[in-house]
Specification:
This protein is α+β, with helices and mostly antiparallel strands. It has helices at 2-13, 23-35, 146-151, 179-195, 218-226, 277-290, 306-309, 337-352, and strands at residues 41-42, 48-52, 61-66, 71-77, 83-88, 100-103, 111-115, 139-140, 159-162, 166-168, 173-176, 204-209, 230-238, 258-264, 272-273, 295-300, 317-325, 333-336. The protein folds into two domains: 2-69 and 177-364, Zn peptidases (Aminopeptidase, 3-Layer(aba) Sandwich); 71-162, Elongation Factor Tu (Ef-tu), domain 3 (Beta Barrel). It is built from eight helices and 18 strands. The strands form three sheets. Strands 1, 2, 3, 12, 13, 14, 15, 16 and 17 form a nine-stranded mixed sheet that branches.
């Protein structure tokens, strides 16, 4: 399983898919699902949905991860051929200077560029420790005029992402672009492979969602159509195992999957996720029975689609299950394949336990 996850993740990380422009990623996942015998369909937003029918008396489950990544769109093309950008999603400005980026013009026609960084030899002492706001940055694609840029297919609104990379590190560690949330997508795909072979199961909808990095509401459209009883979101957990993050919790890379007990954005929106007690109980019992280490996380500053999915219909029982990740939202995020493998086993085993007798009555768990 680990080697399948390694190969699947590497494929996904190398496919550009800015929020609102996830189609290449969706088509790739649809082909891979077809390879394991799962038909899928896309809605108007671009969410990809595959359904495994199961016991109609059991609560239905939506297992989902988001396909999109953060990045930029072209805002202005200067007469000189240099390009200005608008940020899309939570891109950290301090991580941008001198990065290589990709203008997503079309498959086989994408254009690489470099985020300019003022020559060190001309940088005054007072500038050396300042972060340049993204609005003041420009990207160099090697063109000398706006006409030359447009001849490459680059226009206002063209999507731009970190240049896709996969960097194998020691052991089972992998660094690269869009680990958030292509690692989650890889786990959903592998869980689908496992659950397809389970005869006693609930109805399961595997959803590969769009727009999470833009407005967090892409998965909500899928949930409105599917009306699941339970939704399980797979995304990252912030690690606390580097010197700059020790105050943020106890999650460590390589320590196994994590269960989120509290998330709250804290900036610009009063929203977050408090998991349903039936699901925290299910996950804890499954982890213990399967011998899977389970970490716990609670933090402000991150938000997932589950915060909106939970509000669909009469309410959906939700939980965020996570893989530990370092250096999030940069061009080189890091995850551990061992964590992804254990997360896959945990998710598949937990869903397989949901039968007609599984109750979502909160009073049974609190």
């Amino acid at each position: 399983m680990k080697e399948r996850l390694r190969a699947c993740l590497a494929e996904l990380m190398l496919i550009p898919g800015l929020a609102g422009h996830e189609d290449r990623v969706r088509r790739h996942i649809a082909r891979r699902l077809a390879d394991i015998g799962l038909d899928s369909r896309a809605d108007r937003l671009g969410n990809l949905i595959a359904t495994l029918p199961g016991d109609p008396g059991a609560p239905s489950v939506m297992l989902f991860a988001h396909t999109d990544q953060l990045g930029f769109v072209v805002r202005k093309i200067e007469a000189s051929g240099l390009i200005r950008i608008e940020r899309l999603g939570g891109v950290p400005e301090k991580a941008l200077a001198a990065q290589c980026v990709l203008f997503c013009v079309g498959e086989g026609r994408d254009v690489r560029g470099v985020v300019a960084n003022k020559s060190h030899h001309a940088t005054a002492p007072e500038e050396k420790y300042k972060v340049t706001p993204y609005a003041d940055l420009f990207i160099d694609v090697g063109a000398d005029s706006a006409d030359a840029v447009q001849a490459m297919g680059i226009r206002i609104g063209t999507p731009v992402v970190y240049d896709p990379r996969v960097v194998p590190l020691a052991g089972d560690r992998v660094a690269g672009t869009s680990v958030d949330d292509r690692a989650g997508c890889a786990v959903v795909m592998e869980a689908a492979r496992l659950l397809k072979e389970v005869s006693l199961r609930p109805t399961i909808h595997f959803v590969f969602a769009v727009l999470e990095e833009f407005n967090l509401r892409g998965a909500m459209v899928a949930a409105q159509a599917l009306r699941p009883d339970i939704a399980i979101q797979l995304d990252l957990a912030l690690t606390a195992d580097t010197p700059d993050m020790t105050h943020r919790g106890e999650v460590r890379l390589g320590g196994g999957p994590a269960m989120s007990l509290y998330s709250f954005h804290g900036r610009g929106t009063l929203n977050g996720t408090l998991p349903h007690p039936a699901l925290t109980s299910l996950v804890e019992a499954t982890a213990e029975a399967e011998g899977i280490p389970l970490q716990r996380t609670a933090h402000v500053g991150a938000l997932t689609d589950s915060s909106y999915v939970q509000l669909v219909g009469e309410g959906v029982a939700v939980i965020d299950l996570c893989f530990p990740s370092r250096y999030t939202h940069t061009a080189l995020e890091v995850c551990d394949l061992g964590d992804l493998e254990q997360l896959t086993r945990l998710v598949a085993a937990a869903i397989a336990r949901i039968d007609a007798g599984f109750s979502l009555d909160r009073d049974l768990y609190t």
